[in-house]
Amino acid sequence: MSTTRQAEVWAKIDGANSATNTVEENLDLYSQWAPSYDLDVTEMRPKGPAIVAKVLELIFGENKDALILDAGAGTGWVGKAIQKRGFTNLEALDGSQEMLNIANQKGIYKRSICGLLGPNRLDIESGILTQHNVQANLMILI
Ligand SMILES: C[S@@+](CC[C@H](N)C(=O)[O-])C[C@H]1O[C@@H](n2cnc3c(N)ncnc32)[C@H](O)[C@@H]1O
Question: Which Gene3D superfamilies match (predicted)?
């Protein structure tokens, strides 16, 4: 990957991660980024999704039906790797419909919700996973 190309992708990452962005500005940046997001992040972090998926397998073991809410699912870049590990019960939440539109084409999620993480009650099963609760059947992945 050329340094120019790296700089181009870092500029998008920095723009999306800027602490001064409002939520709306942030979602707008992701919506504009959606068409090239998978290519960009794969070039930068090719092994990232597989590492996340492996960690989930370490937590859940053979409980491949565990309900996983992929919060900030985006295009399903990480979600696809989780599915490839054999997990079958994934739901997506993201504030950008443009990102979710790409995720929805991949056949990963049983349900896809365009909504904001924040103070509002979400229409999802509630539960919590801690280190001491490895039998939990729900994980929220952010
Ligand atoms: C780093 S990106 C996507 C990460 C994704 N898990 C992947 O596989 O690459 C972060 C995502 O969070 C979403 N997002 C940012 N702020 C949000 C909020 N307040 N509520 C819901 N989604 C949000 C963005 O639209 C974006 O798709």
Answer: Vaccinia Virus protein VP39
